Amino acid sequence: MDAHTSMGGAVYMATFTIRHHAFQRCGDLRASLVEAWRRVQQGSVWQGLKERYGIIGTIRALEVTHGQNGWHPHLHLLICTKRILSDVQQSALADGLWNRWSSSLHRGGLGSATRDAFQFDRCGTAADAGAYVAKWGAASELVKGHAKLARGGGMSPWQLLREAGAGSKEAANLFREYAKAFKGARQLTWSVGFRAAYGFGPEVDDDHLLEDTAFTTETICHLPSGIFRQVVVKEIEVAVLNAADAGIVDADGVVVHDPGWPAVLARIRDAGIAWPDGEGWFNRPIAVPESEAA
Q1: Of 121, 104, 120, nearest to 112 (Cα)?
Q2: How many CA atoms lie within 13 A of 25 on its CB side?
Q3: Least packed by Cβ within 10 Å: which of 33, 53, 157, 249?
Q4: What's the CA gap between 263 and 229, in Å, rounded?
Q5: Dmax over Cα atoms in the chain, in whole Å?
Q6: In the chain, which residue ranges form alpha helices assigned H by DSSP?
Q7: Is the Cα torsion angle 153, 157, 159, 161 positive or negative in sign?
Q8: Handedness of CA 106, 109, 112, 118 (dihedral sign)
Q9: Which residue numbers in the chain have pLDDT < 70?
Q10: Strand partners, 119
Q11: What is the DSSP letter of 166?
Q12: Is the dihedral of CA 199, 201, 206, 212 positive or negative?
């Protein structure tokens, strides 16, 4: 987006959705939504819109939430044009996209959609454009935890997973349905040739990224299996890892224990897990038989 806007291009945001009901399955709605957008991009009408308004590429993001009316799928779209459109042109492009989308829904037997659910605006900055399509990505959801409910009171899949972890069987069943429906789906999809136009190569999958990345590791300590089981039972695995990585800081911001073994030992003992004193245990890994290490 930075590259595109620096060359005088503009970026517009569009949101598309379809009618949905509580009895519809997540996988069926996802397939219908994607197929509807595929039809939009077919034929002379779409080619005419691209030529008339200088559309050189699109980036599509797939999102789904669950609420009172069941699964609610959306497409968030970035439409990149060669130039900034006038207000009249922007309005005309919005009308053209909406008419194209509405026609696609009718042709696919998906009924009609309300214009109120359709949004079309120009992005103020490249960062806004990136946030618009990336905010529903797994990375953002896992890191930020999705503290807020999805718009309209619905729940994101990761909020459903959280509820499942808290004991909700309904949420667990819904998350399983989502996971099955979206297995293998791309959260972000680039139009053909758009990445290459700005010098980006083909997208690399996670397995290849792992193969091409050199990871360095450091052994801080070995936890005997008995102690590790207590760590798991007391649910302090994350706290122990954080102590190893960042140390322990008190409420006043004072470092109580430096990162590494001292902080790990302190965190384990703070949880009431007994670890005997022993020479060298505070400054070097503890050697235990491989069969007992966890």
Answers
A1: 104
A2: 9
A3: 249
A4: 19
A5: 79
A6: 2-6, 26-40, 43-53, 87-107, 126-134, 138-144, 157-165, 169-182, 194-197, 206-212, 225-233, 237-246, 261-270
A7: positive
A8: negative
A9: 135-153, 209, 212-216, 276-294
A10: 15
A11: T
A12: negative
| Token digits of residue 108 | 């696919």
Q: What is the pTM of this model?
A: 0.63
SS3 assignment for 113-162: CCHHHCEEEECCCHHHHHHHHHCCCHHHHHHHCCCCCCHHHCECHHHHHH
Rounded Cα–Cα distance for residues 21 and 114 (Å)? 15
41-48's contacts with Cβ under 8 Å and 24+ in sequence apart are: 45/96, 45/100, 46/100
Q: Per residue in 97-116, pLDDT tens? A: 999 999 898 888 877 777 77
The phi and psi torsions of 57 (rounded to 5 degrees) equal: 180, 160
User: Which of 276, 238, 270 lies closest to 257 in space, CA to CA?
Assistant: 270
Give the Cβ contact number of residue 212 at 10 Å: 8
Q: Reduced to 3 states, what is the DSSP secondary structure of residue 288? A: coil
Q: Using alpha carbons only, what angle is made at residue 185 by residues 182 and 188, rounded to the nearest 5 degrees? A: 125
For residue 12, the model assigns a pLDDT of 92
75 forms beta bridges with 16, 62
